[in-house]
Amino acid sequence: MSSSRVKINLIEYFENTVDLFSGKVALVDANSELTFEKLQIRAKYVAVRIAQKNRIINRPIAIYLPKSNEAIVSFLATLYSGNCYAPLDTKNPISRIKSILQVLDPICIVTNNTYIANIKKCGLDIDIINLDELDLEKTNSIELNYNECIDVDPAYIIHTSGSTGVPKGVAISHRSIFDYINWAIDTFNITEMENIGNQAPFIFDNSTLDIYLMMFTGATLYLIPEQHFMFPVNLLEYLETKRINFIFWVPSVLINIANLKLLNSSRIPTVKKVLFAGEVMPTKHLNYWIQNLDKKVLFANLYGPTEITVDCTYHIVDRKYSDDEVLPIGKPCRNSDVLILNNENNIAKIGEHGELCVRGSSLSLGYWNNFERTKSFFTQNPLNKSYPEKIYRTGDIVYVNKKSEIIYVGRKDFQIKHLGYRIELGEIEHSILSVFNSINVCVLYDQSKGEIVLIYESKEEIPNSEFRIKLANVLSKYMIPTRYVKLDQLPTTNSGKIDRVYLNRSIIME
Amino acid sequence: MEDKIIRFLTEIRPEFDFTNSSDFIENGMLDSFDIVQLVVSLDNEFGISIDGVDILPGNFSNVQNIVELLIKNGVTK
To answer: pLDDT, tens digit, for every residue of A393-418?
Structure first.
């Protein structure tokens, strides 16, 4: 393929990299490593199996695998088959997986021997591909469909918490991804020399940056074994021995390392670029990192919801911040535009609070199989009176400071960021009511302690362990409340709704 | 000491029986957030400050290992 031709789908980018770096290591997980050439061969084998049964394009394929080389092979295989992949969390309770699959309606599910029994518990009539039973050597080659994909076709669907209790599938196009990745390559000067240390789970769209920097540039992607994040000393040793020089992590991991005071000037000398996103990075902990790493190390704060393809603004740390200053989320990424709209739908003045809205090629195609919700979050740009133009309303309240930097203030609804995960308190409440149908509940977030708090109305005290055991069947572990408060009666407002403001003041800020 | 450790572990992950497991880590009974929470609980309860370099799999794989870690930190009972 001619590399000078403008590329229109992700496979064209990947094949260009394979041409340049075929023998170089692409992927390393706890069990094996794959060169770019091997990664391509394996992905095509799996793609053939998908295409044998399904000669259609632009349909979802669910990937039910833990973070591994196999998972990346399956993502690529999906793209080679002309379809889009939806990573599922193997740690999710099966009821949550089932409700995702029912809306997603995939053409098949890719899994392996370890996970197949679990996925079958869903009892849905969906074709299952077991990677351990594929006879790769015997596969006949057939024409793959990826050449039919154009830039506006979906490449992946990532599920985020939904306030009505059912997760929403955010569909992202090829163009949105290559626009984002090309911005990142230019901005952070990424080449094949990069050794990327991946932390983000694949169900979390931060992993998009790690995965596609590898596929676009020939960098090597290390999938750091999850256990290392339990024991930060081992994590730092891993970074040193693998000579990791680029990390894009969620702040809670960086904070934990800072709290344990594990860094000093001779630790992780290879690390040159430290990026973070997913929640607010406290300046105090960032300063610890800056003080303990080489002066030339680049630190960057990235911001964005899944609906606009990972990140839409960034701030490269360029000056000293005192421990109580707020780190800006910065300015828009190239080919992304940010509108800060006040209550009158006008552009907010400097210092004035408004909702951060995004326009551009980064916008998601919409929520999969959910036209209703798509319509309410992706709306006409109120400033454009001449032709249809969509913006995404993030629900994040921000303002612009005198340096023209965007500063994050908070949410206008009940969405929270906990341990880097985006959670709708409404999803937690719905799930609690589905297993405890005789009590009334309100779920709040204690920002200062980082705790999800469940307040319930009941005559009898319910043991914490009963909540936790039952909720583990319906909620992801990171969504399960850790503090429980019993009230004889939940306070209500004049309109009869639960008085969240009062509860926040009396229980969270007490 | 053992009782308190088991109580903390059970508060964090009530779905598991920590008295009957010889390796919490291998058996996947704890994750990274659980370890952070456990260390905070132990520090507060026993008035100690467990050193970051001691947060290793070998010190948290069973109750006996955690007891030894506490003894190393000067906890006597």
So the answer is: 999 999 999 999 999 999 988 999 99
CB contact under 8 A, A260 and B52: yes
The Cα A184–Cα A337 span in angstroms is 16
Tokens encoding A268 = 């992780």
Measured distance CA(A33)–CA(A73) in Å, rounded: 12
Percent of chain A with pLDDT over 90: 83
Q: Which CATH architecture has domain A416-508?
A: 2-Layer Sandwich (3.30)
Token pair of B15 as six digits: 């779905």
CB nearest B14 (choices: A230, A232, A468): A468
Closest CA to A507 of A431, A443, A462: A443
Residue from the list A229, A233, A482 with its beta carbon closest to the beta carbon of B32:
A229
Quote the tokens at residue A51. 């295409």
Q: A447: which DSSP letter?
A: T
Q: Give the homologous superfamily in CATH for domain A10-223.
A: ANL, N-terminal domain (3.40.50.12780)
Write out the two tokens for A141.
């080659």
pTM comes to 0.93
* φ and ψ at residue A349, rounded to 5 degrees: -75, 170
> Inter-axis angle of helices A174-188 and A10-21, to 10 degrees?
50
**Contact yes or no for B55 and A468 at CB 8 A:** no
> Contact, A254 vs A247, CB < 8 A?
no
User: Is the Cβ pair B36, A256 closer than 8 Å?
Assistant: yes
In tens, the pLDDT along B8-52 reads: 999 888 889 998 888 999 888 999 889 998 999 999 999 999 999
- Topology (CATH level 3) of domain A331-411: Luciferase; domain 3 (2.30.38)
- DSSP collapsed to 3 states, A217-246: HCCEEEECCHHHHCCHHHHHHHHHHCCCCE
| CA atoms of A146 and A80, how far apart (whole Å) | 5
Interface of B with A (CB under 8 A): 10-11, 13-15, 25, 30-37, 52-53, 55-57
Could you tell me the residue ranges of all domains in chain A?
10-223, 331-411, 416-508
Query: A456 CA to chain B: closest CA distance, Å?
Result: 19
Return the C-alpha torsion angle A280, A286, A287, A288, nearest 10: 130
- Compare all CA atoms of chain A with the CA of B8 and give the residue at the minimum distance: A465
- Chain A residues near residue B33 by CB distance under 8 angstroms: 419, 478
ipTM of this complex prediction, to 2 decimal places = 0.87
Distance CA A260, CA B36 (A): 10
